[in-house]
Design a protein that fits this description.
CATH superfamily of the largest domain: ANL, N-terminal domain
Strand order of the largest sheet: 2-1-11-10-12-13-14-15
Number of helices: 17
Number of domains: 3
Number of strands: 25
Strand content: 15-25%
Helix content: 25-40%
Structural class: alpha/beta
Radius of gyration: 23 Å
CATH topology of the largest domain: Rossmann fold
Oligomer: single chain
């Protein structure tokens, strides 16, 4: 092969910061703060404060390869750390604050983070865990200077550190694009959380691809509010996708309730947002109760778990908002597929197109290859009906978990996602279940996702969870746990009657339980807890 004669400029996150400062310096960034005020500045201000923060990090002794941890919400300060730490060659370890104490401690220790930045919301957690921390030596409270409380850990103040630095030019170090940038840990799995170390190259390529028309389709006219958490797989890459496309950025801090979202969406002209279904359930309930408006909102991306059809229909038919279902995982940085229309799909008519968009997780995107294989490892046909294990590979897909000796992907680069799925001839992928959540009854499979989608469409249902429990005759049978909307009363008979026209008889849940549905740290239904709680429901044990 003859070598190419083009430049080999590294793909690094500081290139995004430099670009947006030059191309869109006055585009606004609006952030709620944990103190409750609104912070307004622009991309030029972000770049300036990030340079000062980088100098402060150097004075704290942070050097290339060091891990710097955060326990923080979606705020401008957290965003600044997204650029300052990787820009110095360090690795930002975004810790999920919704994990249990022992899991938070495990992540900090496993990552060997040396500095911990935290919002004051998490001061009790930090002070509770600090005596057991062996690697964190420096604590920084992310608060206004006048609201600073060093607490028992002797925390430094974020704003004081930044203000002490000069506003002069700063030469970012030249980095290897394959160097580590973000360390994100999985949650909701058995055993300890597993670390996924994103490279600069993966982050930049992911951001470039996710902004394409076939994916999020963002432009400089969009106002974007990430309701996916910055600590969860870098908020689906939006802190990088938005500046690349010149979007105004709105950060809601920890305020994800329906009223708070509606206030920011309307006041700031938000056109595009994204988050897990539970957030949008609260948002729609608030609009329904108050008669509020969606303002300029045009599109929402929803991921984390399957989008209830009733939710997608309400957004489109009632509010004129397009729902884009997505699928991805921490191990894919995280975007895998997006449910955007194609000409071939549109030719089938609006009703058929909606059916596909609302029932599939998404379609093939450049950069991620998908493959469905059967139990023997043979590739399944792309007929939209034959299901099997979903495998992925690509430049922003994991090769190996952090501090593990063995690769997570096979010799050809294929990573087993743990999902059961189908692929169709139009390139659309549909998750039928997690491998661990498929209900096996009498030699047949029941899709818990499909059952949940039917159940959540029942009037009065807020969240529906379907899972398998042991059965003396059929191996497993489905149970349905329903959390009703506040003030709503439902009966088992009403729910089963609603399901009857939609499912075959042997899919019918053996019991319906009305109780709060537990959620994981990332807002997904925690079926481990449900299976443990109701394990003996049908056996009498």
């Amino acid at each position: 092969m003859i070598p190419g004669l083009m430049q080999t400029t590294p793909l690094v996150t500081t290139a995004i910061l430099n670009f947006v400062e030059a191309a869109h310096p006055k585009v606004e960034i609006v952030s709620r703060t944990v103190e409750g005020r609104i912070q307004r500045y622009d991309y030029a201000g972000l770049a300036a404060r990030t340079r000062r923060l980088a100098r402060a990090l150097r004075e704290l002794g942070v050097k290339s390869g060091d891990r710097v941890a955060t326990l923080a919400w979606n705020t401008h300060r957290h965003l600044e750390l997204f650029y300052a730490v990787p820009g110095l060659g360090g690795v930002l370890n975004t810790v999920n604050p919704r994990l249990f104490d022992d899991q938070i401690l495990y992540v900090l220790e496993h990552a060997e983070s040396t500095v911990l930045f935290y919002d004051r919301t998490f001061q009790p957690v930090v002070e509770r865990l600090a005596p057991a921390m062996t690697t964190v030596k420096t604590f920084v409270l992310m608060s206004d200077a006048e609201a600073h409380d060093p607490g028992t850990v002797g925390a430094l103040n974020y704003e004081t550190l930044v203000a002490a630095q000069p506003e002069e030019a700063f030469d970012w170090p030249v980095l290897d694009e394959n160097g580590g940038a973000f360390l994100c840990y999985t949650s909701g799995t058995t055993g300890d959380p597993k670390g996924v170390l994103y490279s600069h190259r993966a982050v930049v390529l992911h951001a470039m691809a996710a902004g394409l028309a076939s994916a999020f389709g963002l432009t400089a006219f969009d106002v974007v509010m990430p309701c996916s958490s910055l600590y969860h797989a870098t908020a689906w890459g939006l802190p990088f996708i938005c500046p690349i496309n010149g979007c105004k950025l709105v950060l809601p801090a920890e305020k994800m309730d329906g009223a708070s979202l509606q206030e920011l969406i309307s006041a700031e002209g938000v056109t595009f947002s994204g988050g897990v279904p539970t957030i949008w359930t609260m948002y729609l309930a608030h609009l329904d109760q108050t008669g509020g408006s969606v303002g300029a909102l045009k599109r929402i991306i929803i991921g984390g778990s399957a989008v209830p059809r009733a939710m997608a229909e309400t957004f489109k038919r009632t509010h004129g908002v397009e729902v884009l279902q997505i699928w991805g995982m921490t191990e894919t940085c995280p975007l895998g597929v997006v449910a955007t229309p194609t000409a071939a799909l549109a030719a089938l008519g609006e009703d058929e197109a909606d059916e596909v968009i609302w029932t599939r997780q998404g379609r093939l995107q450049f950069g991620i290859e998908l493959k469905i294989v059967d139990e023997d490892g043979k590739e399944a046909p792309r007929d939209g009906a034959t299901s099997g294990s979903l495998l992925v590979r690509g430049p922003w897909t994991i090769q190996r978990y952090y501090r593990k000796d063995e690769d997570a992907a096979d010799a050809d680069g294929w990573f087993d996602t743990g999902d059961i799925a189908t692929l169709d001839h139009l390139g659309f992928m549909r998750i039928t279940d997690r491998a661990k959540d498929v209900i096996k009854t009498g030699g047949e499979w029941i899709s818990s996702i499909d059952l949940e989608n039917f159940a959540v469409a029942c009037p009065g249902v807020k969240i529906a969870a379907v899972f398998g429990v042991p059965h003396p005759k059929w191996e497993e049978r489905p149970l349905l746990v329903i959390e009703p909307h506040e003030g709503q009363t439902l009966t088992k008979e009403e729910v089963l009657a609603f399901l009857e026209p939609h499912i075959v008889k042997w899919w019918m849940p053996d019991d319906v339980i009305f109780a709060p549905v537990p959620l994981t740290a990332t807002g997904k239904i925690d079926k481990k807890v449900l299976r443990t709680t109701y394990r003996d429901r049908l056996t009498g044990g």
